[in-house]
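Entries read sequence, tokenised fold; example below:

***
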Amino acid sequence: MLKRTQLKSNDVLLSMAGTIGLSVVVPQNLGEANINQAIARIVVNDNVNTFYLSTLLSSKVGKIQTDRLSRPAVQANINLEEIRALKIPLPPLSIQNKIAKEVQSRMQKAEKLQRQAKETLEKAKAKVERIILGEEEK
């Protein structure tokens, strides 16, 4: 695997082509993987919470910057030099951690609500099917 494109856990990835500005943190359990030229791999030092950075890049603040830099063509894109020029507000690590924890907590709640909604919908579908088949009174 090519070393420059090989992913490590906690790398921050940023889309550079097509839908620009989407960001994620590489999970611990990904295994061996590489990226292509449409994805930027951002390696940060210990003073930056990777989830904070990814959240910021995906936020309105990050989107405004990447949209401003993108060049519309058949497929919009930005380059690594432009990504390096992004203005990233870096509060103290304790504040980054607090922001990241809050966002992660809300994302977990949202995922739980989505699972519950899916289960409720599946139960409702099953009940309607039983009613249609005459297996249950209306």
